[in-house]
Design a protein that fits this description.
Blueprint: H1 5-27, H2 44-50, H3 55-68, H4 75-105, H5 109-140
Helix pairs in contact: 1-5, 3-4
Length: 141
């Protein structure tokens, strides 16, 4: 389990408790009326350029570049950059389309309540799984 098993177990326990708490809060959250006023939608170019300001994307990209960079051969780096760029924008497009479609499904309070309960429950199950894998799965190995 690593160099500091008690420390990792306590982090897993605290993290699981916190994730369970967040899941419970999501599952039991009150559902407010969503009143979306007509606003000017961002243009494609604005969304495209905004992705270049995403710090998580930069960290992921730098980590990937560090894995694929080689002083002898740049073809793996160029392949990584091309694949990363394409996957990034295909994923963002899919995310935007899915968000638009889900917005239609969550148009009523009842649908949003069911969605919150499912998502909160899934989060709680993830916390239980994390806790189980950290505390019990290693002991049986």
């Amino acid at each position: 389990m690593g160099l500091y098993p008690q420390f990792l177990q306590s982090i897993a326990i605290m993290g699981s408790i916190y994730i369970t708490y967040i899941g419970f809060r999501i599952a039991t959250a009150s559902i407010a009326n969503v009143d979306i006023n007509a606003q000017e939608k961002p243009q494609f170019l604005q969304g495209f350029l905004l992705q270049w300001l995403n710090p998580k994307a930069w960290v992921a990209c730098i980590s990937g570049v560090a894995l694929f960079i080689s002083p002898e051969n740049h073809s793996t780096l160029f392949t990584f950059i091309l694949v990363y760029f394409l996957v990034c924008y295909v994923s963002l497009t899919a995310w935007a389309i899915a968000g638009d479609r889900i917005g239609l499904l969550l148009g009523t309070k009842g649908h949003r309540r069911i969605f919150n309960r499912i998502m909160g429950g899934v989060l709680i199950l993830c916390a239980i799984s994390l806790l189980y894998s950290q505390l019990f799965a290693h002991n049986s190995a």
